[in-house]
Design a protein that fits this description.
The protein is α+β, with helices and mostly antiparallel strands and about 220 residues long. It has 4 helices and 11 strands. The chain folds into 2 domains: about 1-25 and about 135-220, 2-Layer Sandwich (Alpha-Beta Plaits); about 30-125, RlpA-like domain (Barwin-like endoglucanases). It has helices at about 1-15, 105-110, 160-175, 200-210; strands at about 30-40, 60-65, 70-75, 85-90, 100-105, 120-125, 140, 150-160, 180-185, 185-195, 215-220.
């Protein structure tokens, strides 16, 4: 019965989004979140971020799954009290239980460079503009008119081989409908749905988790 409830809720939300342009839920200044922070550095130096900006580990930037790109967040290390403002220019971290990926410089400023991770609180200081004009993400399949519209979505898999991504997409499409592939860097990311709020996307995530798939929320940008 629970699975039927989630399925009906997902179908309702999917139909309510329709084909028309949607107004995506905004993030308020002061929005807070607590969880584990990690950091990334030289291995990604010189590579494009989700915003199209080239990653520089010596800049005060960060990756977050859903906050609009360009958002400024105050990150406080709850283990030592140190704080720093970071600008979200990338997506991640795609590890369960982690809420933000800081640049190497950010991790040093926050005092967890050596440890690798820390428990933090993040607070939105200024909301960013969101989707970049020239997104480095390429759409393969799906509704190309809507796929990079800054909506919330559920990512269910990432493949280095396009054929594997296509097979997985076909499988999910038969079950859930609105499914497509978003290529970023060297990975083909299989995603489900276009939603105006995280709450709506969470309904789908709950359903796919109950069905035995893995997934997480992110944005179509």
């Amino acid at each position: 019965m629970k699975r039927l409830f989630y399925l009906l809720m997902f179908l309702f939300l999917l139909l309510s989004c329709g084909k028309k342009a949607m107004k995506v839920e905004e993030v308020s200044r002061g929005y807070t979140e607590k969880g584990i922070a990690s950091w990334y550095g030289n291995e990604f130096k010189g590579k494009p971020t989700a915003s199209g900006e080239i990653f520089d580990p010596e800049k005060m930037t960060a990756a977050h799954k859903t906050l609009p790109l360009g958002t400024i967040v105050k990150v406080t290390n709850l283990e030592n009290g140190k704080s720093a403002n970071l600008r979200v220019n990338d997506r991640g971290p795609f590890v369960r239980g982690r809420i933000i990926d800081c640049s190497k410089k950010g991790a040093k400023e926050l005092g967890f460079y050596g440890e690798g991770t820390a428990k933090v609180k993040i607070e939105v200081v200024r909301e960013g503009r969101g989707k970049p004009i020239n997104s480095p993400t390429e759409v393969i399949g799906g509704d190309k008119g809507r796929v990079l519209d800054d909506s919330f979505t559920v990512q269910v898999g990432a493949f280095s081989d396009l054929n594997n991504a296509k097979r997985f997409k076909e499988k999910l499409e038969k079950i859930y409908g609105d499914c497509y592939i978003a290529k970023f860097k060297d990975f083909y990311r299989v995603r489900l749905g276009h939603f105006k709020s995280e709450k709506e996307a969470q309904t789908l995530l709950d359903l796919i988790l109950k069905d035995g798939f893995e997934g997480f929320l992110t944005r179509n940008d």
